Each structure stands twice: as structure tokens, then as C-alpha cells.
Amino acid sequence: MVSGSLLFIDFETACTGPREWDLCHTDSAVAETYQGSFSEAALDQARLVVSAMTSALCWEGIDRGPDMRFHAEHHLAQVRTALT
User: How far from 19 is each of 36, 51, 55, 79, CA to CA, in Å?
Assistant: First the structure.
């Protein structure tokens, strides 16, 4: 915490952009406790984009480990559910 507020440092997805992009890489409980303003709709869309990216990366590296298929299918299901 910095001056009583959360500070996100995520070097994997470091960029200057909306808070929703930072929050979408965290657990839902983090967004619930975040004290700054953000759009729930934009957060939902950002989480959908991350699921699409994660699914594609897992399918591309399906041979990297036994859990890749599970994660690929899980995130693809998230995208499909959101689009129906």
C-alpha cells in the first residue's frame, strides 16, 4: 500500500492505460476492494480480452504441460459464454 491506496506493479502487462486493464489481471476480490473509480462494463470487457489471449496462448503451447488443455478450454468457454 502506498499512502493508504493500492499500487499495482505488473511488469508483464506494464502499460499506461485504463485502471480496468490493471484490475482485469487480478482476482475479482481485488476489484471489490479497489477504492478508485472504474467501469464495471469496461472491466468485464478487459477480462474477456484476457481470456481470449490466454486461450490462444495455451492452445499454441498445448504441448508445454498437462494443464495447458484445461486452461485453453476454460478460457475459451469464458469467451464463448460471453458472446452468446
Answer: 9, 17, 23, 21
